What we know:
Layout: H1 2-12, H2 18-31, H3 34-54, H4 66-74, H5 86-89
Helix pairs in contact: 1-2
Amino acid sequence: MIWGALKNRIAMGPASSVADLGSYIAAGLEAITSKEWLGAYKKMRKQEKAYMNLVLPPQTTPAPSVQELQDLSTADATDTQNAVSIETLEGYHIYL
């Protein structure tokens, strides 16, 4: 929104050189009023709230027991006695 306001100001009097463009950008940013900044902020907050309402809250993941953690840490590829079955692991959902 602020970027659009800046572009509109520059478009009304296009720069003839890169040096002019730099000064136009600086002047354009200085010309943006606190009312415009506040309006952009309020609009952004409204959009953020709408987005957050669309996102589902994460499901809770059950904490593994001490025994399950020990089984996982001591099991190797050939060890079937301490191996955790795939059915046990499917109960856990990991969200990144």
